Amino acid sequence: MPMIHYILKDGSIRSVEAKIGSSVMENAVRSNIRGIDAECGGSCSCATCHIYVDDAFINRLQPPDDMENELLDGVASARLTSSRLSCQITVTADLDGLTVRVPEAQS
After folding, report:
1. pLDDT-based confidence at 42, cuts 50/70/90?
2. pTM, whole model, 2 decimals?
3. Which residues contact 86 (CB under 8 A, 6 or more apart)?
4. What stretches of the chain show up as alpha helix (H) in DSSP?
């Protein structure tokens, strides 16, 4: 199974085995990753699963669609070029080792 590394607000790292086809958000919630709230449950309507994707992986992802882009414009922490909603990233074998950082605030 691919491994996802979550860098938490305090700088610590939690590594989680992820099921292919699941979302980065689902793996965070299942593993109790603090700071990824996912209040809408993954329906791309709340932006409380905002993350920063490591530069080494950003080009492996499909770009955000219009809805995700609109929600990213309203996130609580700064929007960066690496900002994504974790509910919109589907885990693939190519994402093994994906590293994401949890922002300071979600709402």
Report:
1. confident
2. 0.93
3. 23, 24, 25, 28, 36, 38, 49, 50, 51, 100
4. 24-30, 55-58, 66-72
